[in-house]
């Protein structure tokens, strides 16, 4: 079988994948990001490429339409808005999941032809603070780090990064080095204990936003200990005195760490020249995100620990093409190819190259401001591509209202139903991963090809093509007349060539003669190039800048709400939500609550908690765990209105932003919490797709159909009617066990001897083995036996899934540990867990240490 060489569409590690239309997915042994490895999400890609739920034709206001009708309408509405209200009355909101070619033409259309910079991207929620911090320090948005540096380092500091779940293959690479070289030191700085803490020698349970106090303290310590590199500073760095003066005014214990912990970390940092500081959303998504970035960069600059093997700051990017988007200028405050909107020379050069009628004159609206402008009626036409802001923006309810307030909304997506798509006037079907061609740039500046290996489904078209078709209808056909993504790529490379005279870091000449079809994964400006090795930076004086950073003033509500990600889901779950094995890891929206807080809130096992920020609320399953600090809560971002009734965490996150980068502080909500007092709680499994209903409900895919968790404030009049409504089973026979005294109801529905659905309700959270109930759906199990739980007695319940590849449950693993497994290898030998992709290894380690697993409901 000949497999197609492509790149994973999820995280910024950018792993090479070998894929086939039959669903075969393998890690590419030759790709330098992963050398054959894949994590659980990558391994399950084959389960997500089916056409279930796909958007396959254009739609205008819910009705199927032809491409001609849809494109004409989009072009007419955008042209009319520009004509009547000016270029700034329209906006694009795009995504780090677009390919470079898509991104390039979207940016070209908005900035060079429409003439506005109102194109912002979900990278604003993701990398904007890193971009701003890099520009302040280096004079350019240059990521100097490479993955090899992580393997060469003697100390790896992970700040605000849950690498084990969010960049699993990088995490595995580090784990492999640690195994070979146990003296490699790893420090994890995170307010909560995560799967990443498992590999770390030291976990520093920092206060939220305590990072500035920590790194300012480190700078002062390095100076006091004589550990700064004064020659390097004199030759290559400005701003040292001011940065030190600011650092000295700051009390490091404001980080929430003890003097002992601080000293231990500082001494480790001072001692190891080869230190890589990896940072991610715990740093970026904050009201002081850019300052946090610079507080980290200051320490690397003061010690000259940048631009040399095995050391440097390393902002790992989240999305597969976050870097590509930055390169083509996809943010509202950037031009193209790392050039600046504010610089008239840059603007003229780009306009001349594009031969465009105009060029934006000033930065456009950043994401939060953009949706605020929508709410105020300033935006007349909005086009959202490859992102789901009705879920992923802070204050997502407000953002949804804002989108609904825009007179004309276009959404390009691969799925027919998303929370944002539901608000669109026009839906445009894009080809998805495996169906389209293009390039992406990973965290270490490596450009890799995504290649099609599937036929184009329905009428779908690649994003670059859709954008060019609209541009042509707006009157700019000549400038957008590409026949293929490779032509777009060539133009992008040529633009970088044409603007080389400005001496920016983005030099793409290595691709000038590249064979696009056969392009090998290649770093810019070339493989193994070391930025800043010569001490030269991109500020006009050639020096790097240290920035004076003041400690932030923190205001805390009753609970500090931190948010983030789960191992096996990707953002708003439009793709990973299709794979049963990924859903089984954590099937419900949950919130981590400290045991003392849980006691004060009178939470019992399985209870639901209602969070309220004063304006909106959401309901989540309480997961009581000491991994979060008292007074803190943590909830994942993944659940939407498609899968839950009221469990979207961004309903209660604030839209405060970092003043420099405009990045929202998605890690620092302030909410009150109360126990949700349901009149009944339920669980159902069905052959059929179920939709959210009741005050609390969470739907997930299962291996036999669908499951739903439920709770509501009032009991229905008739449980059987309710069970049929929820499970979607209208015919066949019903077996019911109801006990009015206790309020328990168990109902099974079957047709021609096949069990269609089971439904369980009780006045308290339902304790039953979900996995067993799910297994029975679609089988010939007798309904009453199913309800009594008599089937397969004597066969142990595997428990909640830990290993997604081999579907190994927690109870199976605990049993194996009871039978003498003392290591991850033993567990693998006994149960297969962890022997394929390895993403569950941190959890296996946790189990071996007898720590509680993140289980919402079992
Ligand atoms: N499984 C999975 N992987 C993904 C994604 C996904 O959706 N699912 N998305 C991808 C994307 S786009 C991104 S951006 C990355 C994100 O990757 P990460 O940034 O690693 O993930 P998060 O879970 O958002 O947040 C990381 C950690 O920051 C901590 N944190 C919160 N506040 C603070 C603070 O004040 N200081 C410090 N030091 N830490 C803090 C949180 O407790 C959390 O554990 O993941 C990428 N990879
Ligand atoms: N509370 C909280 N909120 C957060 C975060 C957090 O940590 N906490 N993190 C933020 C971050 S870092 C990020 S990056 C965002 C991510 O948030 P989003 O970008 O909104 O999330 P996705 O689910 O990845 O949305 C991608 C959409 O594009 C569609 N799609 C997939 N492939 C294609 C394609 O080829 N073409 C087109 N046109 N569409 C496609 C998918 O179906 C999906 O609807 O969330 C942010 N929101
Ligand atoms: S680590 Fe996993 S999600 Fe990220 S690129 Fe690799 S296989 Fe894909
Ligand atoms: Mo992200």
TrEMBL record:
Domain 4Fe-4S Mo/W bis-MGD-type, residue spans: 1-64
GO biological process: cellular respiration; nitrate assimilation
InterPro entries: Asp_de-COase-like_dom_sf (IPR009010), BFD-like_2Fe2S-bd_dom (IPR007419), BFD-like_2Fe2S-bd_dom_sf (IPR041854), CT_Nitrate-R-NapA-like (IPR041957), MoPterin_dinucl-bd_dom (IPR006657), Mopterin_OxRdtase (IPR006656), Mopterin_OxRdtase_4Fe-4S_dom (IPR006963), MopterinOxRdtase_cofactor_BS (IPR027467)
Domain of life: Bacteria
Cofactor(s) the protein requires to work: [4Fe-4S] cluster; Mo-bis(molybdopterin guanine dinucleotide)
GO cellular component, one term: membrane
SMART domains given in the database record: Molybdop_Fe4S4
Keywords recorded for this protein, A-Z: 4Fe-4S, Iron, Iron-sulfur, Metal-binding, Molybdenum, Nitrate assimilation, Oxidoreductase
Claim: Iron is one of the keywords in the record: yes
Molecular function in Gene Ontology: 4 iron, 4 sulfur cluster binding; metal ion binding; molybdopterin cofactor binding; oxidoreductase activity
Family: Belongs to the prokaryotic molybdopterin-containing oxidoreductase family. NasA/NapA/NarB subfamily.
The protein, known as: Nitrate reductase
Source organism (scientific name): Litoreibacter roseus
């Amino acid at each position: 079988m000949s497999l197609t060489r492509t790149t994973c569409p999820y995280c910024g590690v950018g792993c090479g994948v070998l894929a086939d239309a039959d669903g075969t997915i393998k890690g590419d042994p030759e790709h330098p990001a992963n050398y054959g490895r894949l994590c659980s999400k990558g391994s399950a890609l084959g389960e997500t490429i089916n056409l279930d739920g796909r958007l396959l034709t254009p739609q205008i206001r819910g009705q199927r339409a032809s491409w001609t009708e849809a494109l004409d309408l989009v072009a007419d509405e955008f042209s009319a808005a520009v004509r009547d209200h000016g270029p700034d009355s329209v906006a694009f909101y795009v995504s780090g999941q677009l390919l470079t070619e898509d991104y390039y033409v979207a940016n070209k259309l908005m900035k060079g032809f429409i003439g506005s910079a109102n194109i912002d991207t979900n990278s604003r929620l993701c990398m904007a603070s890193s971009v701003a911090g890099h520009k302040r320090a280096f004079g350019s948005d240059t990521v100097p780090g490479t993955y090899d540096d992580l393997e060469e380092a003697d100390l790896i500091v992970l700040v605000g990064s849950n690498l084990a779940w969010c960049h699993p293959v990088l995490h595995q690479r580090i784990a492999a080095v640690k195994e070979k070289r146990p003296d490699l030191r790893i420090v994890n700085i995170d307010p909560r204990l995560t799967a990443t803490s498992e590999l770390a020698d030291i976990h520093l349970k920092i206060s939220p936003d305590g990072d500035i106090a920590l790194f300012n303290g480190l700078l002062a310590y390095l100076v006091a200990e004589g550990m700064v590199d004064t020659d390097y500073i004199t030759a290559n760095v400005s701003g040292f005195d001011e940065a030190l003066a600011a650092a000295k005014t700051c009390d490091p214990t404001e980080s929430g760490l003890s003097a002992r912990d601080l000293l231990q970390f500082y001494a480790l940092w001072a001692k190891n020249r080869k230190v890589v500081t990896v940072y991610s959303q715990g740093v970026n998504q904050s009201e002081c995100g850019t300052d946090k970035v610079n507080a980290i960069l200051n320490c690397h600059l003061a010690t000259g620990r940048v631009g040399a093997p095995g050391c440097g700051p390393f902002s790992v990017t989240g999305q597969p093409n976050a870097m590509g988007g930055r390169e083509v200028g996809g943010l509202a405050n950037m031009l193209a190819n790392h050039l600046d909107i504010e610089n008239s020379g840059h603007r003229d050069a780009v306009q001349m190259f594009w031969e465009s009628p105009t060029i934006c004159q000033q930065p456009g609206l950043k994401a939060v401001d953009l949706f605020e402008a929508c709410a105020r009626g300033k935006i007349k036409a909005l086009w959202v591509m490859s992102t789901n802001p009705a879920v992923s923006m802070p204050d997502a309810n407000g953002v949804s209202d804002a989108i609904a307030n825009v007179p004309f909304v276009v959404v390009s997506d691969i799925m027919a139903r998303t929370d944002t798509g539901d608000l669109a006037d026009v839906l445009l079907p894009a080809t998805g991963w495996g169906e389209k061609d293009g390039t992406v740039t990973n965290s270490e500046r490596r450009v890799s090809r995504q290649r099609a290996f599937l036929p184009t489904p329905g009428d779908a078209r690649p994003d670059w093509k859709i954008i060019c078709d609209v541009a042509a209808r707006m009157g700019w056909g000549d400038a957008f007349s590409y026949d293929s993504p490779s032509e777009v790529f060539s133009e992008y490379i040529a633009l970088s060539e044409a603007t080389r005279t400005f001496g920016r870091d983005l030099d793409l000449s290595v691709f000038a003669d590249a064979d696009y079809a056969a392009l090998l994964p290649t770093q810019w400006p070339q493989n193994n190039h070391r930025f800043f090795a010569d001490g030269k930076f991109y500020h006009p004086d050639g020096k790097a800048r240290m920035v004076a950073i003041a400690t932030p003033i923190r205001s805390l509500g009753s609970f500090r709400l931190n948010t983030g990600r789960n191992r096996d889901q990707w953002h708003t779950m439009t793709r990973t939500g299709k794979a049963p094995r990924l859903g089984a890891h954590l099937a419900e929206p949950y919130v981590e609550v400290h045991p003392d807080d849980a006691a004060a809130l009178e939470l019992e096992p399985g209870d639901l908690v209602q969070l309220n920020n004063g304006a909106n609320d959401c309901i989540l399953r309480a997961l009581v765990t000491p991994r979060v600090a008292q007074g803190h809560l943590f909830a994942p971002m993944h659940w939407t209105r498609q899968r839950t009734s009221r469990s979207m965490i961004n309903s209660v996150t604030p839209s405060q932003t970092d003043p420099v980068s405009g990045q929202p502080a998605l890690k620092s909500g302030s909410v009150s919490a109360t126990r949700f007092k349901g009149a009944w709680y339920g669980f159902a499994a069905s052959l059929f797709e179920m939709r959210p209903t009741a005050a609390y409900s969470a739907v997930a895919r299962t291996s036999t159909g669908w499951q739903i968790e439920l709770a509501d404030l009032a009991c229905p009049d008739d449980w059987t009617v309710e069970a049929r409504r929820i499970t979607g089973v209208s015919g066949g026979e019903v077996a019911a066990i109801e006990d009015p005294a206790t309020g328990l109801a168990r109902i099974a529905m079957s047709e021609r001897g096949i069990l269609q659905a089971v439904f369980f309700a009780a006045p308290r959270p339902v304790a039953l083995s979900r996995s067993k109930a799910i297994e029975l759906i679609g089988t010939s199990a007798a309904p009453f036996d199913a309800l009594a739980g008599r089937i397969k007695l004597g066969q142990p319940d595997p428990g909640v899934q830990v290993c997604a590849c081999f579907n190994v449950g927690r109870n199976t693993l605990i049993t194996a540990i009871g039978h003498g497994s003392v290591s991850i290898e033993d567990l693998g030998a006994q149960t297969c867990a962890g022997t394929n992709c390895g993403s569950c290894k941190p959890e296996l380690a946790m189990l071996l240490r007898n720590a509680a697993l993140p289980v919402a409901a079992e």
